[in-house]
From TrEMBL:
Source superkingdom: Eukaryota
Chief site of localization: cytoplasm
Protein name: Coiled-coil alpha-helical rod protein 1
Example GO biological process: protein export from nucleus
Start and end residues of each stretch annotated as Disordered: 487-506
Protein keywords: Coiled coil, Cytoplasm, Developmental protein, Differentiation, Nucleus
Record-level GO cellular component terms: centriole; cytoplasm; nucleus
Gene3D superfamilies: 1.10.287.1490
Subcellular location(s) per record: Cytoplasm; Nucleus
Lineage of source species: Eukaryota, Metazoa, Chordata, Craniata, Vertebrata
Residue ranges that the Swiss-Prot or TrEMBL entry lists as coiled coil: 9-93
Length: 506
């Protein structure tokens, strides 16, 4: 019986040792798996946190870039509006100044050095013509005096002839001569008077012609001044157009630079967007891996819980067997006669051993009962923590996706603004091309206006030369006619003087 009891005790101790060893192995395996899971999850959480911080930094940088681009676009738009307003105000001021110049041109004309020189030449030419006219007038007056003297001489000669003529011979040769002489003189006087009237009319015509020429000269001067003012106006317009073209070219270069910058920023944002998308995919994959690992850990914990429940049931079975053996032992002791003191001491020792084994068994039972609860609590805490972290990561991922969507919208907005800027650049290029064409047209008009004064001056000079030559021809013709008349009068006077003398001699 003692051997049996010792064998049972050894067997119970061996089973307890096995259970302790198995429990220790389970604890070590559970702690090791828990440490691995915690390390893996902490590493994944740190990686996710780093990726989340990187995403936040990238999104912050992209947001700052988008805000800076918006500010730059707003500044460029405000600058363009300001330049357009300045251009419109300058155009209105130029239009007002052009209207004022057009109004002033009809009343006042400023003369430059060439105009003064041309006016001086015209004035000297007019003075020359006036001097020639005065000389012609003096010559006409002298001719009048000479004709008057000739008429006086003829009157004296007629008086002498009338005094010397015999009244009885009135119808003779002297009377006929006198009548013929009177007729000739009358004809000469009529011719002289008609020539005088003709000279007076021609003089008035010459005076009118000179006045007309002066008016033409004044008109040509006014036209020349208007043409010069138009030339200056067109030159000023050309300069303004050149300045406007330079401003447009500068704006075009600035717009091209901004367009290149916007394209570079667009490419950078696309690269950052692709990097953010890749990071989001990696985060989602890591979250999926974490979920798979959590499921595997949960399955392993379920298997460990099953093993613990099996060990608990086995301990309960062993405890029942021990209780049965103890009851059998007590019944056997009760049926046996009392032993001596050695048996009592041995019984006490066995009882103490049984009590120790029972206490160890109870401690192991409590430990085994408490271990699944602790494992379950730890698993629930770990699961809650992981669920919380997964929720945070999911929220961060959703925020990142929302921010990515917002960045995409901003990228599309920036792309649209870039397209608008490209359209504006194309419009500015077409406007610059039109301005260049307008400048070329203005240059052609300026060259025409520059050649027009020379052409007008040449036409005016040719006209003046024609008028002067015509006046010279008329004056020469009149002088020749007057000289012929004077010579005729002299011959007649000579004949008239010689006729009465011969008649008186006879």
């Amino acid at each position: 019986w003692d051997r049996l009891r010792c064998a049972v005790c050894r067997r119970q101790r061996a089973e307890c040792d096995e259970l302790d060893a198995e429990l220790i192995r389970c604890k070590e395996a559970l702690n090791h798996s828990r440490e691995k899971v915690c390390e893996h999850h902490s590493a994944e959480i740190s990686a996710l946190s780093q990726s989340h911080t990187q995403l936040q930094d990238t999104l912050t940088a992209a947001t700052q870039e988008v805000t800076s681009l918006r500010q730059r676009v707003e500044e460029v738009t405000s600058e363009r509006e300001r330049l357009q307003e300045q251009l419109s105000t300058q155009n209105s001021v130029i239009a007002e100044q052009t209207d004022t110049l057009q109004k002033l041109r009809s009343y006042i004309g400023t003369h430059c050095g060439d105009e003064e020189q041309q006016q001086q030449q015209q004035h000297t030419l007019i003075q020359k013509l006036q001097k020639e006219n005065e000389a012609l007038c003096v010559s006409v007056e002298l001719l009048k005096v000479r004709v008057q003297a000739a008429s006086d001489i003829l009157a004296l000669q007629e008086r002498e002839l009338r005094d010397e003529c015999d009244p009885l011979q009135k119808d003779g040769a002297a009377g006929r001569l006198l009548s013929l002489w009177r007729e000739k003189v009358f004809i000469l006087l009529v011719q002289l008077q008609s020539r005088d009237l003709q000279l007076h009319t021609e003089k008035s015509q010459l005076h009118d012609t000179v006045c007309d020429l002066q008016l033409d000269v004044q008109k040509l001067q006014s036209q020349l001044s208007v043409v010069q003012h138009n030339l200056r106006d067109r030159t000023a317009q050309l300069e303004l157009q050149n300045l406007h073209t330079q401003e447009l070219q500068e704006q075009l270069s600035c717009a091209v630079e901004e367009n290149t910058k916007l394209k570079e920023q667009k490419e950078n944002r696309e690269r950052s967007f692709s990097a953010i998308t890749d990071t989001a995919h990696r985060v989602s994959e890591s979250v999926g891996q974490c979920a798979g690992q959590m499921d595997a850990a949960q399955c392993r914990m379920d298997s460990l819980a099953q093993r613990l429940s099996f060990a608990t049931k086995r301990l309960d079975t062993v405890h029942g067997l021990l209780l049965r053996r103890e009851a059998l032992r007590k019944a056997h002791q009760a049926s046996r006669p009392p032993d001596p003191a050695a048996s009592d001491s041995r019984i006490e020792r066995l009882q103490s051993e049984v009590a120790l084994l029972s206490s160890e068994r109870d401690a192991l039972t409590q430990e085994l009962k408490r271990t699944p609860q602790l494992i379950q609590n730890a698993l629930s805490d770990l699961q809650q923590q992981l669920e919380k972290e997964v929720g945070l990561l999911t929220q961060a991922l959703s925020r990142s996706r929302a921010e990515l969507d917002e960045c995409e919208l901003r990228r599309l907005e920036a792309q649209r603004q870039c397209e608008e800027r490209e359209e504006t650049i194309a419009e500015l290029r077409t406007e610059a091309h039109r301005a260049e064409q307008h400048c070329e047209e203005l240059e052609g008009t300026i060259t025409e206006l520059r050649t027009e004064p020379h052409r007008i001056q040449q036409h005016w000079q040719s006209l003046m030369q024609e008028k002067v030559s015509e006046m010279e021809r008329v004056c020469d013709k009149q002088l020749r006619e007057m000289e012929t008349l004077l010579n005729t009068a002299r011959r007649e006077h000579t004949k008239a003087g010689a006729g009465p003398a011969a008649w008186s001699d006879e």
